[in-house]
Design goal:
- This protein is mainly alpha-helical and 82 residues long.
- The chain is 72% helix and 0% strand.
- The protein is rod-shaped and about 95 Å long.
Length: 82
């Protein structure tokens, strides 16, 4: 007969809580602890970074499209000579 039991003592008041069921399911399904948070972070990051990237490219396009008055005149002169 072993000196100590292999099961830990858990009072009845803590057995039916959400935390207890979560802990017991983690030992059976480690994906819940490691995989699910990782995938959730990747998906959430994609949604948060999409508007930032769009803003960056829109800003770049606006900068490229705006021409100064001298550049406009220079373009008109070179196009007329051709």
């Amino acid at each position: 007969m072993p000196t100590f039991q292999s099961k830990k003592f858990v009072p009845k008041s803590l057995q039916n809580t959400l935390a207890a069921s979560y802990r017991s399911s983690l030992s059976r399904h480690p994906f819940l602890l490691f995989g699910l948070p990782f995938i959730a972070t990747m998906v959430a990051g994609s949604f948060f970074l999409t508007p930032a990237a769009a803003l960056r490219y829109e800003r770049h396009d606006r900068k490229v499209k705006t021409l100064t008055r001298d550049e406009e005149l220079g373009l008109k002169r070179t196009q007329g000579r051709k």
